[in-house]
Amino acid sequence: MGLGIAPQGRYEKKIEQHRREMDEKFRNPQTSPLRELAHTYTGQDYYPPDKTYRVRARLERTPEAKPFRLPTSNPEVQKQFVQYGILHFSLHGKACRLSVYRNLQLSNMPQYKDLLFLPFADQTSGLETYGGGRYLDLEIPKGNKMVLDFNLCYNPYCAYSEGWSCPIIPRENYLPVPVRAGVKKYDKHAEK
User: Fold this and answer.
1) Residue 176's domain spans which residues?
2) pLDDT of 46-78, one tens digit each?
């Protein structure tokens, strides 16, 4: 093996492919949150893929939850969500829980009918990662078990440029541990 560098495994390759696809989306002015600066995009800073941030969670469904309006980064815009359930899991030995939501507008569209939205903040928020927290997209499972892969978490679009209406992380979704996985803080000045 030479310098002691382990070959990249299947899991790491999957994460790297996901990141290449995300970067390609950001370079395309039609799909980029950077809008007019998409052509200057050079890539994001990511934590190295780490399987310890891929955890099994137990889903406690909350069918009686009432829809609510979640504030966004634009004070004039609120989005309607409903809590779908509470995810219980352990991260680096610490018991954690996060609420997972459905966007009521998106859930009416066939391509998003099974989409769940997991916004969260953690002890890296505002330091190593975007201060407004990060997001994970999940699918409704058939049973009550889910896999959370924080290596796939991403920044809200408002981390990249103004004019977006990004849901603000509910206080109940602040994790008491650092999540050093997924995308890091974006340096807006690096693209100019």
Assistant:
1) 52-191
2) 999 999 999 999 999 999 999 999 999 988 888
Number of domains composing the chain? 1
In a domain, 158, yes or no: yes
184 within domain boundaries: yes
Let me know: does 34 contact 191? Beta carbons within 8 Å: yes
Find the length of the chain: 192
Residue 10 lies in a domain: no
| Nearest-5° Cα angle at 182, 136 to 110 | 25
Residues forming a β-bridge with 98: 87
Cα-based angle 54, 59, 64 (whole degrees, multiple of 5): 150
Claim: this prediction has a pTM higher than 0.85: yes
What is the three-class DSSP state of 172?
A: helix
Nearest Cα neighbor of 140 from 174, 169, 173, 100 is 100
Quick one: DSSP state of residue 85?
A: E
Tens of pLDDT along 148-158?
Answer: 999 999 999 99
DSSP, residue by residue, 17-60? HHHHHHHHHHHSTTT-TTGGGGGG-----BPPP-GGGEEEEEEE
